[in-house]
Amino acid sequence: MAVFTAVSLDDVSEWIKQFPLGKALAVRGIASGIENSNFFITTESGEHVLTIFENLSFEQLPFYLNLMRHLAERGVLVPAPVANDKGELIVPLHGKPAAIVSKLEGSSQMAPQPAHCAAVGAMLARMHLAARDFPLTQPNLRGLDWWNAVTPTVLPFLSDSNAHLLRAEMHFQESYATCEHYKRLARGPVHADLFRNNVMFVGERLAGFFDFYFAGCDTWLFDVAVTVNDWCIDLDTGVLDEARVRAMLDAYHAVRPFTAHEQASWQPMLRAAALRFWLSRLFDFYQPRAAEMLTPHDPTHFERILRERIATPAPRLF
Ligand SMILES: Nc1ncnc2c1ncn2[C@@H]1O[C@H](COP(=O)(O)OP(=O)(O)O)[C@@H](O)[C@H]1O
Ligand SMILES: N[C@@H](CCOP(=O)(O)O)C(=O)O
What number of H helices and E strands is found in the chain? Predict the structure, then answer.
């Protein structure tokens, strides 16, 4: 669990007066976050989530909050940010940026079946299409530039075999990023971290996507690859589960058809998505941020997935 910025009902009662939500009745800290301090807030107008951003700045946040508002206004199931009486979505609390969003119902589906994967695939395609006219841009801050910056900081800790894998994959991805197929991939705002724990379900009904704080502009196919690499695998081996992959890809394709350039890029992109999380987990493991009590995620999970995606031909996209 991350260190929390403590917030009392008294703090919130005063602060929330600037929002059209009525009085605050209760505040409850959420223990499961690892990036930010999150609280469920009961107000006279219902349940909301208050987030105090521990790492992101006032400059970076408008992209995420406005993207969520843009998507929510277009019927994509995401938390809707609430503006204060000046129309602001990001308002300081205890000197840190903070925001209030609507609370999604449901819970995470940690053992997804093909029906869940189909619902996620369809909503992901709707999200990509709905964000086409989103006016703000911000790069994926965990993209190729970040991989290049982080690689030398983790290489000294790796075994010879893993160092070789990392160097070879970085070389492959840098070269792939210059090819014609890659340049012609559709792009736009992407979630970039749509793991099982960032989606709410009520039974088989998808209730919403949340945790947009790794979102950025990148290829839509990268988003699909990140999502497939988490939702459609056997967690012990990293091997793709054919039924769940087909359900997710077919549902996505029915809403936003994949292209031939995407088909040609699918295996490199599954590798890129595995590399991205291997690198961030290695970084968090070997270079933990000061003053946080995080239990790092296991990097070997994504090393296994990367090796598997290199070794096994990718299933067809469509
Ligand atoms: N809008 C929301 N609706 C309902 N629950 C939410 C919402 N946002 C966050 N949560 C809850 O808070 C937990 C932590 O949120 P998350 O955004 O994943 O934190 P972090 O970015 O710190 O990892 C989630 O697992 C979920 O239970
Ligand atoms: N999904 C990433 C870590 C990001 O954590 P989140 O709780 O903010 O989704 C991983 O598994 O490495």
Answer: 10, 9
